[in-house]
Amino acid sequence: MKKVDKKVADQYFKIRTTMIIIFLAIGFSVSFGVAAFADVIHETGATIMGMPAHYYMGAQGAVVTFVILLFLNAIISDRVDKKFGIDDKQNEQISGSGSGH
Amino acid sequence: MDQQSLVSLILILITFALYIGISVYNRAKVTSDFYVASRGIPPFWNGMAIGGDWMSAASFIGMAGTVMVLGYDGLAYIMGWTGGYLLLTFLLAPQLRKYGRFTVPEFIGDRFDSNPARLIAAIATIIISFTYIIGQLSGSGVVIGRLLNLPASTGVMIGVVVIAIYASLGGMKGVTWTQVAQYMILITAYIIPIVFLSLQISGNPLPWLTYGNVVNELGALDRELGLSEYFAPFEEGNKAQFLALLFTLMVGTAALPHVIVRFYTVTTMKAARWSGAWALLFIALLYLSAPAYAAFSRFVIMTEVVGSPIDNLPGWTEAWLNTGLLEIADSNGDGVLQWEELVIHQDIVVMATPEIANLGMFVVGLVAAGAMAAALSTAGGLLITISSSFAHDIYYRLMRPDATDGRRLQAGRIAIVLSTIAAGLVALDPPGVITQIIAWAFALAGGTFFPVLFLGVWWKRMNKQGAMAGMLGGLSVTLGYIFLSMAGITFFGIQDTGAGVFGVTANLILVIVVSLMTPPPEQRLQDEVTDLRYPEQMTYKDGQVWMNDNSDK
């Protein structure tokens, strides 16, 4: 066991929390945000991929964004863990021995 | 039995044999096999199993039809049922995984150090999962009944027997691998028809790229008929109801116990994040296809079926007219079928479209096998959840803490058999419309659990009084609003399916206010919550964070 500087530990938590807030904000704006203005967008007649823009966002745009966000989160989080010296093998070992109750 | 029924039946039997074979091969030997598959499932496969677990009869059979009938307003289901995975993967799954328990009630009981809270959570879990499973059993009954020309109730009985066998044999380990197989079957069955439809209509085999034009043409056809355009927003409800439904489905998705428990089957927080990402990718394949399915089948019906003489309709109409799910009336008496004279029940769209478009017996049979896979995989996951709430949380943690591994496994298996029989009996005569019951299950899950789990892992000051007040208050407000709106009293035009908005709000306020008015939880519990901020290798202890680098070994 090695003590982690409080600043480093706090920084880890802050990076992870900021990521979550940004990702959720993007996720909510492509779903709730677009739906809240669907009637306005409909009237402008804008289209994406050949269909009305608000319809496209509901049927494909929002879902594709969600998938991209989750993969970005998984990839970036792994990088952050690595930067802070976290070894996934160790994690597996700890979680395997610690939770067998 | 006609040739079509025979082909469909053979396909369904082959897939059933596959599921039972997998669960026999992966038989559970110890309790952790049974509940969490020994926590050894790799994220990619776990993601696929979550996909199979998640996509139920409602997604497979009902969703495309809902979008076809409601147009833009049906898209709340597409966004809500996928967006929930954002909340789940960002806010709950990794933290719950690090906390390291078997079930949702066990997390709540241990996090707040309260057996009454554990009991409330266990009972709520059973209620939510039981509500959900009734829909699955009715769905499988409809498919089997339609194929074999049997009453739907006989179909339900056949489905019940198959599910009980493989869930009680294999436990979570068996269920995980059968769900992987079921996902592959259901996604193939869903995508093949729309690929053929896309080829027929536009000559391009990628439906996701081609149906945009079809959507526009549908709008033009609607304008000609003087109807509101297919893609016009909020024609079937108002904006508040759309947003409330979207919110309810999203939050409910993140708080459904049978989905959360899947994140306990992986090894680490990192694996939980990757599981969430893979799961949503696999789920999105079906959810991106549903609006294409809806657009193509509406297009085929509007251009090829409508306008044909009413006494010379295609062969497929007869069987569906007999089920009462399709109605045709020549109301203006001109002998020709008009769009307005056709009433299509939304649950038959996915099943009937391959027949309408003449895709052949094999494709029609495959869709039937896919629908069964969707219903059975979800029912299997739900049964494990009900059984663990009873056998683990109530029997082992509350009644008999000294029970042996063998006794607990046995209790789990008995709970599965009993709840399958009970749910089967209710499903023989379902208490309401299937999609509506399922929407209630989401409202109840979100209203009871979401704020409690969310603040439970993020806010260390939250205590047991807050948790109990939140769960009970959220549950009763959600139930109360469902009953009120069924009786015709609504606020802001929000209907019963959007009840989660009120439940979650009440729950959140109660948790915060009651927690702050009562003493804080003891330091040990607060430290456990702080510990969830960091990966497994970092531990929070005595106000310090420690890194486990194996130096003391």
TrEMBL record, chain A:
<feature type="transmembrane region" description="Helical">
    <location>
        <begin position="20"/>
        <end position="41"/>
    </location>
</feature>
<keyword id="KW-0472">Membrane</keyword>
<feature type="domain" description="Sodium symporter small subunit">
    <location>
        <begin position="10"/>
        <end position="87"/>
    </location>
</feature>
<dbReference type="InterPro" id="IPR019886">
    <property type="entry name" value="Na_symporter_ssu"/>
</dbReference>
<keyword id="KW-0812">Transmembrane</keyword>
<protein>
    <submittedName>
        <fullName>Sodium/substrate symporter small subunit</fullName>
    </submittedName>
</protein>
<dbReference type="Pfam" id="PF13937">
    <property type="entry name" value="DUF4212"/>
</dbReference>
<keyword id="KW-1133">Transmembrane helix</keyword>
<feature type="transmembrane region" description="Helical">
    <location>
        <begin position="53"/>
        <end position="76"/>
    </location>
</feature>
From TrEMBL, chain B:
<feature type="transmembrane region" description="Helical">
    <location>
        <begin position="359"/>
        <end position="390"/>
    </location>
</feature>
<dbReference type="InterPro" id="IPR050277">
    <property type="entry name" value="Sodium:Solute_Symporter"/>
</dbReference>
<dbReference type="GO" id="GO:0005886">
    <property type="term" value="C:plasma membrane"/>
</dbReference>
<dbReference type="InterPro" id="IPR001734">
    <property type="entry name" value="Na/solute_symporter"/>
</dbReference>
<protein>
    <submittedName>
        <fullName>Sodium:solute symporter family protein</fullName>
    </submittedName>
</protein>
<keyword id="KW-1133">Transmembrane helix</keyword>
<feature type="transmembrane region" description="Helical">
    <location>
        <begin position="75"/>
        <end position="96"/>
    </location>
</feature>
<keyword id="KW-0812">Transmembrane</keyword>
<feature type="transmembrane region" description="Helical">
    <location>
        <begin position="147"/>
        <end position="169"/>
    </location>
</feature>
<feature type="transmembrane region" description="Helical">
    <location>
        <begin position="500"/>
        <end position="518"/>
    </location>
</feature>
<feature type="transmembrane region" description="Helical">
    <location>
        <begin position="47"/>
        <end position="69"/>
    </location>
</feature>
<feature type="transmembrane region" description="Helical">
    <location>
        <begin position="117"/>
        <end position="135"/>
    </location>
</feature>
<dbReference type="InterPro" id="IPR018247">
    <property type="entry name" value="EF_Hand_1_Ca_BS"/>
</dbReference>
<feature type="transmembrane region" description="Helical">
    <location>
        <begin position="242"/>
        <end position="264"/>
    </location>
</feature>
<dbReference type="InterPro" id="IPR019899">
    <property type="entry name" value="Na/solute_symporter_VC_2705"/>
</dbReference>
<feature type="transmembrane region" description="Helical">
    <location>
        <begin position="471"/>
        <end position="494"/>
    </location>
</feature>
<dbReference type="Pfam" id="PF00474">
    <property type="entry name" value="SSF"/>
</dbReference>
<comment type="similarity">
    <text>Belongs to the sodium:solute symporter (SSF) (TC 2.A.21) family.</text>
</comment>
<keyword id="KW-0472">Membrane</keyword>
<feature type="transmembrane region" description="Helical">
    <location>
        <begin position="276"/>
        <end position="296"/>
    </location>
</feature>
<feature type="transmembrane region" description="Helical">
    <location>
        <begin position="6"/>
        <end position="26"/>
    </location>
</feature>
<keyword id="KW-0813">Transport</keyword>
